[in-house]
Amino acid sequence: MESINKKKLANLIIAGVNKAGSTSLFHYLAAHPDVCGSKDKETCYFLPLLYHETIPPLIEYEKQFLHCNNAKYRMEATPAYVFGGEKIASEIHTTLGSVKIIIILKDPVDRLISFYQRKKATFQLSQNMDLGEYVKMCLAKSADELDLRENQVYTGISLGLYHNFLEPWLHLYGSNCKIVFFDDLKKNTGGFMKDIAKWLEIDERFYDDFEFDVKNKSLNYKNRMLHRIAVSANNAGQRLWRNNPDFKKKILGLYYKFNGTVFENKDSDTIKFLRNYFKPHNEQLQKILIAHGIENLPDWLNPVKETA
Asked: What residue ranges in the chain does DSSP mark as E strands?
């Protein structure tokens, strides 16, 4: 391994999962004076391992944190890391040591729908593909096919099987791995952030009067051409937007008002199928979490028992 001071690299990583509030969590933490966020929220440095590729030289990772100076935490958020399971968890541990890991979980049905909507909104899926067709495409892909980058768009179902990826993180990082839930972030954002601040041993009072707003919302659009331009501008200006959050908030507010609209999901049959599909997998996840002392679980992991 290259001779680079680990004190110049990340020691706090939001490692999962995508479309579960990781962008909001990153921005809320990066606002804290004891936390410095990476230049790019998703550095994706270790992500090539997910696709059986080689990671870049470590000096490239160091560049993400050159501005962090003496911050207690140097943080990045690449929520696809968690899906690498033992491969990525162990590589991070070998490279960075026993860093702090945060994994935020979301009801896999809701996550899939949000993932599907995001892929449509960013033109990675056909605008004519409905939810039922998308689910069929996801199920039609083999495990080997889903390992390929070009098929990442069809991982909506496979990446909702959290029990397949989570245990290596819990075993390897122990108390340095914190599992949290999107439900709690949404229900009581202030309390959620104070709990994380306590775990990180940073001043929780910072969030007493903090202005929370939702980041990276999956919204539909009215005018397709205008939205293509907006998506391109957003992708090209990631660092600009991050360094000027108030300006971005105003621009997004105007854009959503002018060209934004909500997605409508009326496919109750597909949603019912998904709930039944994920049920046994959620039960396996529940057992893993309880075995690791994580018991304050959301409703989707504590299904109401049917009465006889």
From this structure: 12-16, 35-37, 73-77, 100-105, 177-181, 220-221, 260-261
Domain boundaries, the chain: 6-218+263-295
β pairing state of 35-37 and 73-77: parallel
Measured CA to CA, the distance from residue 16 to residue 183 in angstroms comes to: 15
Q: Of 93, 34, 95, nearest to 59 (Cα)? A: 95
pTM over 0.85: no
Give the whole-angstrom CA distance, residue 259 versus residue 275.
Answer: 32
In this prediction, residue 27 carries a pLDDT of 95
145-157: pLDDT as tens digits: 999 999 999 999 9
Overall residue count recorded for the chain in this entry: 308
89 torsion bin: left (phi>0), alpha (psi -120 to 50), beta (else): alpha
Whether the Cβ atoms of residue 124 and residue 115 lie closer than 8 Å to each other: no
Write the pLDDT tens digit of every residue in 203-234: 999 999 999 986 655 555 555 555 455 545 55
Of the CATH numbers 3.40.140.10, 3.40.1190.20, 3.40.50.300, 2.40.50.40, which one belongs to the domain with range 6-218+263-295?
3.40.50.300
The mean pLDDT value for 188-215 works out to: 94
Bridge-based pairing of strands 35-37 and 12-16 is unpaired
